[in-house]
Known about the structure:
Number of strands: 12
Structural class: mainly beta
Strand content: 35-45%
Helix content: under 10%
Largest sheet: 10 strands, antiparallel
Shape: globular
Number of helices: 0
Order of helices and strands: EEEEEEEEEEEE
Amino acid sequence: MKLASCFLLLAAFVTSANAGTVVLTFEGLQDEETVSNYYNGGLGGNGSGPGPNYGITFESNALAIISNQNGGSGNFAGNPSGDTIVFFLSGVGDVMNVAGGFTSGFSFFYSAINDPGTVTVYSGADATGTVLATLNLPITASNAGNSVCGSDQFCPFVPFGVSFSGTAMSVDFSGTANQIGFDDITLGSSVPDSGSSPEPATYALMGGGLLAAGLFRSRRRR
């Protein structure tokens, strides 16, 4: 697959993940199941769970999706852990609420090969209050065709994070529906925590466009 011209964006993350962080991997949810109350000690939209009780809820647009390399409908590979990520299939994004709040930093891995996205951290619930941090996410290059990615276009996932002052109560994930996915969402650190990503605190983020459009949810599965 041909790639349009790409560039490197170097982001140095000097804060390392710590024991106080919470990491959402979305494992345990079914393919295209709404996350819903799974991380609030409750169930996903299809009844998966109960999940861990982190006091975290997602609005209805947030769906878990499993890679088609692992029996799901997701057109992705190279995510940092497991075989499940989160994305949104409709609307312009989704809000994550954290009842107990979190501090210090926020980070994740993501892939967005066609359209950029934005993540905004708020001091209030439901994306209200003071904006504590805004992350403008560049388009990521696709390595489709190599041994890790196979034919999946959304691959690999790249890390992104930010430090902030104050206590955050919600996060708004925005972008183009079916065109951006997230994994290993980490609360409490500007460096995303991943068991399969042990390399240093400095990451190269690759931006670029594809000549052919891709979708997180594979059309051939429908």
